[in-house]
Amino acid sequence: MGTKKELPEKRRNQILDAAMDVFSRLGFHKARMDDIVQVSGLSKGTIYWYFKSKDAVIAAILDRIFSREHRALKDVLSGEGPVSDRLLNLVRQSARHTQSLKFSVPLMFEFYALAARHEQVHSAMQRYYATYRSDLAQLIQEGVDSGEFTAVAADKVALSIIAAFEGLILLWVVDSERVALEEDALNSLRIIIDSLHRGGTYENGKSHKSVSSEQEENHNVKVSFR
Question: Is the pTM of this model over 0.90?
Fold first, then answer.
């Protein structure tokens, strides 16, 4: 049995778990607080003690999803080893986490739609992506400063990585038979990493000189994020 101090957090998570289930099935517009009450198994009074409105529940779910992703990135930032390996590990973990919560993935697209007409959601998502992009750019810059990556605009690389992963999630939801999220996300990231290494490709934790890279150098062709 949890302590008195742990109980509020347990109840809060119980409510948010129920809300994610309800919103995933019904969408934000059709879902009612009564639906959350029914799924949670808690009383209506308890639900409203923690969350005064459906908007408050939506904001809490958004914060929960984004906080998990940001913690994963912070762990990578504080880690050791080549930046390339850490980026690949980050994307691998993110893909596996997304796959494990496939039932709730439609929620993210609900958030995107809601952000277009709901100022609170729009502002929250804007802050999250700005923070995530900034921290990811910090990791890219670490690779540049160490000489692992060629000189690039780290912020643009960070945006490209985020856009590639978010786009793949959309395609995976639409056509999971043809899109293998983890595999395709890693392949997309490797293409970006290859362009960041000095005259080579990245494979199995090592930088390799390739024929295509030599041909690009001979013809002064560069993939650039400047």
Answer: no
